[in-house]
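look at this record:
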Amino acid sequence: MAEAVQRVTETSVWLKDKARRGGRGGGQPSGLDRDRVTEAAVRLLDAEGLAKFSMRRLAAELNVTAMSVYWYVDTKDDLLELALDAITGEMDLPDPQAADEDWREQLRKLAAEYRAMLVRHPWASPLVGTYLNIGPNNLEFSRAVQQVVHRTGLPAHRLAGAIAVVFQFVYGFGTMEGHFRARCAATGMTEDEYFRHAMSTVSRAPETSGLIEESKDLMAARGGDTVGEMWERDFTFALDLVIAGIEAMVARG
C-alpha cells in the first residue's frame, strides 16, 4: 500500500524534475511554452468540458501535433493538474496580515472567490482532491485560508474542522451552481428560462406536483426575482450561518 501511495504522489507534476525541457530547439514547437499550453487547456475545458478533453483535441486547438504537446507535459494528468492550479490563481485573495480587517469579511471574500472560480470552471470540481494540489497558486490559497481561520480565535485542534465546514460547503454550493449553469447553456436557455420550464414540467407531473405545491410558501419566502438572485441569497445566508457557528464555538471556549 505504501508503494502505491508513493507512486501516486510522485506522479504530481509539481514533484517532477523542474529542469524540464525548455527553450527552443530539439524539436520543440516554436512559439509555445508550458504556460501557453496550460492557458489553451483551460480555454478548451471551459468551452467543451472535462469529458471531451484530450491531448489530441488540445493539439488541434494549438495547431500542432499531439506529440508536440508532450514536449511540455508527460501526461494528460500533468496538464489537468497545471490547469487546476492556473484557475486557482484567478482568485483575489485577502491579506491575512491586514490587522485592520475583520476575519469574518476576509473569510466571506475567500468563500466568494472560491465559489466564483468553481462556477466559472465547472470542470474543476471533479479534479479537486484528485491531485495533490500543491502548485504555487493552490499553496497560496491554502495559506491564506489557514491564516484567516487562525484569526477566528478557535483553538488549534478546531481549525481544520472550521476550514472543512466552510470550504466543503462552498465546494458543494459552487459545484451545483456551476453544473446548473452548464446545463442551461447546453439547452440554449437562460437560467431563468430553464428554471421556469423545469418547474412548470415538474408541477404538471402527478409524481412531483404535490411536492411543488408544498414548497410554494418556502419558495415565496426565499425571495429573488431571478435564479441568480436566489443563488446569491441562499449562499450569503448559508455562509452567515457557518460564520455564526464559528463565533458560537469561539464564545463557548
